[in-house]
Amino acid sequence: MNQAGELSVGARREVLAAAFVAWMFAGLENGLFVLIHRQMMRELLGAAAAESLIVQWLAWNQAAFMLGAAAGGWLFGWLGDRAGRTRALGCSVLCYSLLTLAAWFVHDPWLMWCVRFLAMLGFGGTWPNAVSLVAEAWPGASRPFLAGLLGTAANVGMVLIGAIGWLQPVTDTDWRWTLLAASSPAVIGVWILWRVPESRRWLHEHSLTAASGGNPAVTETATAGTATEPRSGTFGELFRPPLLQRTLLGIALGSVPVIGTAANGNWIVPWSDQVAAKRAAEKPAAADASDPAAAGAVGQQLAKKPASKNPADVSRSKALTLMSRSGGGVLGSLVGGIAATLAGRRLSYFLISLASLLSSTVLFTQLTPGDPWFNTASFLLGMFGVTYFGWLPLFLPELFPTRVRAAGSGIAFNSGRIAAAAVTLTIALWIQNLAVDYARIGFFTGLIYAVGMVIIWFAPVEQPTSGAKPAKAL
Length: 474
Known about the structure:
The protein is an all-alpha fold. It has helices at residues 9-45, 51-83, 85-102, 109-137, 143-167, 177-182, 186-195, 200-211, 244-263, 268-281, 296-304, 311-343, 345-366, 374-399, 405-414, 416-433, 438-445, 448-455; strands at 219-221, 228-230.
């Protein structure tokens, strides 16, 4: 077997297509609950549920998403290193698809939370195995562009669910159909298990492990002929020197964009939904007052843009915001890997963090949903805040050798979701005692990008070897 792990051009394209669509539909799953949350909770909790309670449940369901994704990254990352990348990837897709289908039958908010958590095990498992497959199937010269291309996939999925919500508005009485639509990727999971070729590099490592009786102490000469590594890694190896430092660094670098997306950017859509619903419910009297200044901020805003009482228009408002933000993410993630190559890993990550911090601060402190520039600002935050996800598919696999690449990438990328879950649960407790203030929430959670501007300077100057070629400078 070719130790370098070479596949035919057709097989490599098939691997890339499988990784792209698997992560694309995972992105659709991510955007689904953001799009339907208000309508879903008004049915599960009752139409008279207070706004603060609905927002608290948004935080709870976001925590279910992040905790499930974190656990899934660990679980399916481990499975990818043990049973194979394609098996783990196919099972991940089936997990999030079939459990989303199961949610169609749920009518209790806590049971919905549990189903959401279990479905997101598959979401978390998709990323490390998709990235590992692509990293091991394509030559190094192609990987910067491919990392960005793969990074766009989730945002394409979010744009897709936003477009679906625009074409078929989500209302209080008609939202469950979205769960059926989001379960359709199950056929993709079956296709991956049946048709997509396994990583040759993983097969090579696996065959050597079997030949050595599974003894991780046995070593082999790496492909480049200049390094050695165990034939089989163990999960615990990631938390022992010499890989411990790289694991912790990967977790820190992966946490910044994960917290930024889940605990910062994801509040834009419900904020837009809240404002649109409030405008639809209020009488236009404030807008018609003889003294607009005396009518207050709400009256001035209504005077700028009269409210529509059509439920479809209210639903389309948040769908447009979701598409704006995710559309920016498509562009940002596409250039993430290229930016990391051209500007260097450290400088590019720093500049991404700075741009994300500035765009988040402007959006949440200077604008309001309905302002002419709101969706443009959402696009920019999506573009900068998601550029990380074109950067990470290039950088994280470089941190770990082949034997623990899927597990290491999965842990590094998904462990930040635990911290993000803690942030959103803190927000839920905050909202319980205070009025719902999306602008304040967005401003404070956006400060996570300033943390990223500091952490990146602890990244190694040299890329590690991964049993392939000597590393280049960052």
